[in-house]
């Protein structure tokens, strides 16, 4: 068996979203198909993925370096020892040839997206959902039936007051979510405190509300928010500092006893290890939010888990960035803390199978082989175009 | 006045170079022209730059995001207060719109290359060499006549023994260099120690020889080399660890009393600040090797200098990566420690003006307006194609 082709296309997100730091109006995402000569249900197996959201499309790097390297490799060198399926670890190593150390993000998003598409193909060839393939390889076969799923929202909009925020949260609770994350930092502290109080009144418990500052604070503001938010004992306080400002993060952690979450803007195992080491995060409570397709993919993520385990971090501390079907399988397969959802926010790239339903804060893991993008009609229409 | 167009092209390096970690056989570089409507000597002023070496071409990011953002900006918003020249700081801010925090390298190389080309245009419009423009803005007008310049080499090649290494070094001394940097890590420690002894015998003094491990060592090997090299008291020991492995770097620094150099694979002010803070580097001796066009350019480099100054680091500690004419001006204009040279190694992208001569380890700063790529015939032929 072999990879017969790898194709990619860039899709505009067309989102009018804006957080405290930047807007998504120009955002694009790369959609990838890894096509094999293995036939299932009468057609060649193709694995799909996309590069999550928040980082721009990376098709040029794929076309210039990573796809040609895989094309040039002897097909057998990319297979498992039995020769009956692809080997993601060998495929990652092949793509990393002739890459200089460091400078991760220029390549990690493109490589990770191809790698996750490879996993979709691997699971389809194995005839299993990806979470089960991952559980067998990385979790001793333990695969849960369902995973915790919280919902993000609470953006600032002109004319949106605390009443409208509460309406938004109520609608999410009606949809089956129990835990909500809202933005902070787009208003003055007293107004944000009122928003948090209003949100708490609806969600009903402090550990059902997280807040997200999107890395927009300077030192003064980060510490002032830490002081203002500490009494609420929220589920977590996300990105109180710049993603690489470990020194300030350590200072915030010293002042803020409740959980802190961060890591969606770190893209390498080395950066995450620096985060837990120098950011003085606390393995008994804090949250790491790696985006797997943006960070070299699933094999490298397993190495990140190993690296931080040496610092006392368990898998339950990981809530990966990216509210999508790829993350859902990764959370289930590795037994992570939970996944996020942004229903309707990032166009076709948001959410899970069209018939997926959140129940009491949990999402059932899908049984369809692979990642199961086939059950996301609008997204799959774009993916299908790559192979038809 | 305004920018009328920004054009770019990717050029293959065609280098058969290989260090201890990776090879350059697929390497490409982006060449950029920023064209203005200001006329000097009968033709529109164009500023040029390229993205140094070691990171692949980044034209897609330029075409998709940074060039369109500059095109869309009102021309006046990119000018200085007098309205008679471009303002690099405003141009940097314009390119950074709608960019998510972190994830630097995916954009820093493309933005930095355009930004350095803008500086070439600024200096040409001002009718001054770039180093003088930078000295006036950033160094209180103090601009040296010449800067220290060392030469890199000492690669491993089949059949190359200590005699051939000594011949290579002798040839460089004959060309006017006094300080040489050679590779380590491509052989076993006893052989590398013999190479260092042989090189020292030719250069004649320990502070005239540096060694470069190219970030290829694991913990055991990094510490073993530190121990083996310490007695020589070399000029510096470069990249003894992975670029982001600050914890190991701190351990190496604790064992290795002589200077350590690193930083060419860090691309943001935040990363360099983490390096000096957590890598426990010593401001009284260690060397930081930022690559300016790969790290958002000159304005951001001035911010990096300010950031590390708060940790006690002087400008003399900086020896920027990239043996080229851009770096030469930056070293002169900011009064940095010195620059590197790789004559003949990176094709048209290596070296300085065709008639530049190193004398007793120093290189004279050029007097031609701008960066002066016009005096590098082979490189300028590629640049000229972008504007003709």
List keywords for this structure.
three-stranded antiparallel beta sheet, 12 helices, 2 domains, TIM Barrel, Enolase-like, domain 1, nine-stranded mixed beta sheet, 388 residues, homodimer, 12 strands, alpha/beta
What does this structure look like?
The structure is a homodimer of 388-residue chains. The first copy, chain A, has 388 residues and is of the alpha/beta class. Helix content of chain A is 37%, strand content 16%. In chain A, helix 9 (269-278) links the parallel strand 8 (260-262) and strand 9 (287-288). The longest helix of chain A is centred in the first third of the chain and has 22 residues, at 105-126. The two termini of chain A are 20 Å apart. The interface between A and B is large, with 48 and 48 residues.
Structural class of chain A: alpha/beta
CATH superfamily of the largest domain in chain A: Enolase-like C-terminal domain
- Shape assignment of chain A: globular
Counted by DSSP, the helix tally of chain A is 12
**Beta strand % of chain A:** 15-25%
Greatest interface (CB-CB under 8 A), with counts per chain: A-B, 48 and 48 residues
User: What is the assembly state of the chains in this entry?
Assistant: homodimer
Which spans of chain A of ≥5 residues are poorly predicted at pLDDT below 50?
none
Overall number of domains of chain A: 2
**The CATH topology of the largest domain in chain A, please?**
TIM Barrel
The gyration radius over C-alpha positions of chain A equals 20 Å
pLDDT average of chain A, as an integer? 96
Give the proportion of residues in helices of chain A.
25-40%
Work out the number of β strands of chain A: 12
What does the main sheet of chain A amount to?
9 strands, mixed
């Amino acid at each position: 068996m072999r990879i017969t082709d790898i194709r990619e296309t860039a899709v505009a997100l067309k989102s009018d979203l804006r957080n405290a730091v930047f807007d998504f109006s120009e955002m694009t995402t790369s959609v990838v198909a890894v096509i094999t000569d293995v036939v299932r249900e009468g057609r060649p197996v193709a694995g799909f993925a996309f590069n999550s959201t928040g980082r721009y499309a990376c098709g040029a790097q794929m076309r210039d370096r990573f796809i040609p390297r895989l094309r040039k490799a002897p097909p057998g060198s990319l297979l498992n020892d039995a020769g009956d399926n692809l080997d993601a670890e060998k495929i990652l190593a092949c793509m990393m040839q002739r890459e200089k150390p460091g400078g991760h993000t220029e390549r990690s998003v493109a490589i990770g997206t191809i790698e996750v598409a490879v996993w979709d193909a691997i699971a389809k060839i194995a005839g299993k959902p990806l979470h089960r393939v991952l559980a067998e390889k990385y979790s001793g076969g333990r695969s849960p039936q369902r995973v915790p799923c919280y919902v993000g929202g609470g953006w600032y909009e002109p004319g949106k007051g605390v009443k409208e925020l509460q309406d938004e949260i109520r609608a999410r609770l009606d949809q089956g979510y129990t835990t909500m994350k809202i933005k902070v930092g787009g208003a003055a502290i007293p107004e944000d405190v009122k928003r948090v109080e209003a949100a708490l009144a609806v969600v009903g418990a402090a550990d059902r509300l997280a807040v997200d500052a999107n890395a927009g604070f300077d030192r003064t503001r980060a510490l002032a928010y830490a002081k203002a938010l500490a009494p609420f004992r929220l589920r977590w306080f996300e990105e109180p500092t710049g993603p690489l400002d470990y020194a300030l993060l350590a200072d915030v952690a010293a002042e803020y006893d409740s959980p802190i979450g961060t890591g969606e803007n770190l893209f390498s195992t080395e950066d995450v290890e620096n985060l837990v080491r120098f950011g003085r995060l606390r393995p008994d409570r804090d949250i790491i939010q790696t985006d797997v397709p943006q960070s070299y993919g699933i094999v490298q993520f397993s190495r990140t888990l190993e690296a931080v385990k040496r610092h006392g971090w368990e898998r339950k501390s990981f809530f990966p960035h990216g509210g999508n079907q790829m993350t859902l399988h990764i959370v289930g397969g590795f037994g992570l803390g939970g996944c996020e959802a942004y229903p309707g926010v990032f166009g076709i790239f948001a959410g899970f199978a069209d018939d997926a339903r959140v129940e009491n804060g949990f999402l059932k893991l899908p049984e369809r082989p692979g990642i199961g993008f086939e059950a996301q009609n609008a997204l799959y229409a774009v993916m299908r175009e790559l192979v038809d």
